[in-house]
Amino acid sequence: MIDCDESAGAPVPGALMRRRAVLSAMAAALPGFVPGLALAKTEGAADSDIVLGQSCQLTGPLAALTTEVRLGARLHFDEVNRNGGVNGRQVRVVALDDAYDAKRAAENTIKLIEEENVLALFQYAGTPSSLAAMPIAEERRVPLIAPFTGSDALRKHSRYVFNIKAGYGDELEAMIKQVASIGLNKVAVVYLNNGFGKGGLAQVEKSAEAHRVQLLSKAPLEVDGSKLDATVAATGQHKPPATIIVSAGKPSVDFIDAYLKAGHRSTFYMLSVTSNAQLVQVLGERARGIVISQVVPSPWNQSVKLVREFQKLARAAGLADFTFAQMEGFLAASVITDALKRAGKIPTREGLVKALEETRRLDLGGYLVELSPTRHSSGKLVDLLILDSQGKFRK
After folding, report:
1. What residues contact residue 118 under an 8 Å CB cut-off, 6+ apart?
2. Tens digits of residue pLDDT in 300-310
3. For residue 5, what are the β-bridge partners?
4. How far is residue 320's CA from residue 322's CA, in Å, rounded to a whole number?
5. Of 227, 245, 271, which residue is a domain's last?
């Protein structure tokens, strides 16, 4: 089950935390007091449920993409809950809207930890939100699991951060290698004008130098859609045979739409945080030929057990059109459920961290997750797929 709260919220006063400490001390003096049980109740594992916290885009330019990811996770958690939950507890996700704003994401994180007492932070959406949560998660010792971003900054080892897919660096390296291999040694780069985009630009520059690919232009793309004409003009004047777009959601689609309407042509390369459904909705047949990197199993590949499970639940829920973002949400929910089952009947944050670190070789029927105390980022899969005229992917 996923609860939604579109308010960013404010940090809980310190008095609340002091009151909790007093109550815990009082409880410890009572006959029959079980220390582990009291601890678990302050960490998102009450008698009847397990609470996970999520800061994401319920509004704003990335809301449509976030909806797809959350839908995939919901399919899995709803099935788990229908079958008795995890060790008898229902899984509940509390989602707060940050509208792709790092400050709101930080406020949400404090609210989720202090007010909602979440066991873990789960699948935060976007680089700014995830990076804002990371230091808070580390300070409060709350696991941050499977953020919906490939930021390399989140893949530097931290005891409380876990990734289950390849990062943007891997995706962009694969794009540059592919461009070089077919003789397109000149490309343009359009990047979202924030930490996510600038980090990706740095990786493109590094990979381009290694593979002797010339960057014809590097044009920023504003999150709010402003200055779009300037971005189109700065890129189009060089007539690049290929354009790498380090962005996600609506700004990416709007750029391609405006670029094509201006009479320019190019082969567009886009990251995995791109919705094929959103592209086709806006571009129609003009989406044909766009190359998108993917880092999770194809939601149409029935040879993968995890995909067959996803399709069965999706169809039962009346979902006809599948996306990679839905698949990623489903995958992330599957991984955390496995860890929760092994974290004990009364899971704690440290117990969940330990369970994740013991995920030495989790085979989800075609997708391997390998984590350990020294390895908190798993995922090697990077596929480059092309959209056809119907908006479907092909190799």
Report:
1. 43, 44, 51, 52, 53, 94, 112, 142
2. 999 999 999 99
3. 96
4. 6
5. 271
Angstrom CA distances, 359 to 76, 85, 110, 164, 336, stand at 19, 20, 28, 11, 10
How far apart are alpha carbons 313 and 8 in whole angstroms?
31
The number of distinct structural domains making up the chain is 2
Please say if the pLDDT value at position 31 is more than 60.
no
Q: Which domain does 251 fall in, by range?
A: 168-271
CA distance 31 to 74: 40
Q: Do β-strands 291-294 and 267-270 pair in parallel, antiparallel, or remain unpaired?
A: parallel
Does residue 181 share a domain with residue 154? no
Cβ partners under 8 Å of residue 98, min gap 6: 8, 55, 56, 57, 104, 105, 108, 129
Q: DSSP secondary structure string, 187-211?
A: EEEEEESSHHHHHHHHHHHHHHHHT
**Do residues 70 and 112 share a domain?**
yes
For CA atoms 268, 273, 275, 276, the dihedral sign is positive
Q: Are 294 and 126 in contact (CB under 8 A)?
A: no
The dihedral of CA 291, 295, 298, 304: what is its sign?
positive
What pLDDT is recorded for position 1? 62
Nearest residue to 259 (alpha-carbon basis) of 278, 280, 281, 287: 287
Asked whether residue 376 is assigned to any structural domain, the reply reads: no
Q: Which residues of 23-37 are buried (b: 16+ CB within 10 A; e: fewer)?
A: eeeeeeeeeeeeeee
CB atoms within 10 A of CB 19: 11
182-200 burial string, b = 16+ CB within 10 Å, else e? eeeeebbbbbbbbbbbebb
Helices (H), the chain: 14-28, 35-41, 63-82, 102-114, 127-140, 168-181, 195-210, 228-236, 249-261, 276-283, 305-316, 324-342, 349-357
Output phi, psi for 285, to 5 deg.
-65, -15
142-200 pLDDT per residue, tens: 999 999 999 999 999 999 999 999 999 999 999 999 999 999 999 999 999 999 999 99
Task: Give the C-alpha separation, 229 to 258, whole Å.
Answer: 8
35 and 96, same domain (yes or no): yes
DSSP 80-142: HHHTT-BTTBEEEEEEEE-TT-HHHHHHHHHHHHHTS--SEEE--BSHHHHHHHHHHHHHHT-
Structure pTM?
A: 0.86
* Structural tokens at position 51: 């609470």
Rounded distance between C-alpha atoms, residue 6 and residue 98, angstroms: 8
